[in-house]
Amino acid sequence: MSDLAIQTSGLTRYYADKCAVDQVSLGVPRGSVFALLGRNGSGKSTLIRMLLGLLEPTRGAATVLGEDCRRLSPATRGRIGYVAESHPLIDWMRVRDLESFQKSFYSPPQWNGRMFTAVVDHFGLPAKARAGKLSRGQRAGLSLALTLATRPELLVMDDPAMGLDPVARRTLLEAMILVTRNAGHTIFFSSHVLDDVERVADHLAIIDNSVLRVSASVEFFRTRVKRWQLSFAGTPPPLPLAKIPGLLAAHRDANELRLTIANPQPETPQVLASLGALSISELPLSLEDAVIAYLGERGEKPSLLQSTQLEGAAQ
Amino acid sequence: MKAIIWKELRENAKWAVLMMLGLAAGFWACQANPDHVDRQLLVGTTMMMLTTLGFSAVGFALGLLQGLQDSGTGRWGFLTHRPISRSRVFFAKALAGVLLYLPATALPLAVTACWVAAPGHVAAPFEWHMVLPRLADLLGGLMWYFAGSLVALRRARWIGSRLMPAGMALVGSMAAFVLPMNFAEVILIIAAVLAILIPAAWGAFVSGGSYEPQPLVARIMTTLCVGIGIFCTFGAAAGMSQDMLRTLSRTEHFQDQARYEIAEDGRILIVKNGPDGSAQVTDLKGNPLPAKLAQSRPSSAAVSLEEFGPRNPDWRQYYWGFQRDTRYLRRCGTTGWTTWYYVVDRGTIEGFDTAHRQFIGSLGPNGFVPPGLHAQPFAELLYTVGSQGHGYNSRMVAAGATAAYQIDVEHKSVIELLDTGPADPILNGDVARDWSGVSTFVPFAIVVTPKTVHVFEDGKERFTVPKRHGMPDTTWLMVSRIADGRYVFEYESFTWGKECGWVVETDNQGQILHETQLPNLPMNISTDPWWTDAPMVVVYPPGILPARLWTLAKSDTDRVEHREVLAAMVIAVIAVLLTCWRLRRVPTSRAAKGWWLVLNALLGFPGLLLLLSLRQRVAAAACPACGQRRLVTGEKCEHCHAPFNAPAALGIEVFE
Question: Is B654 close to A217, i.e. CB distance below 8 A?
Answer without folding.
Answer: no
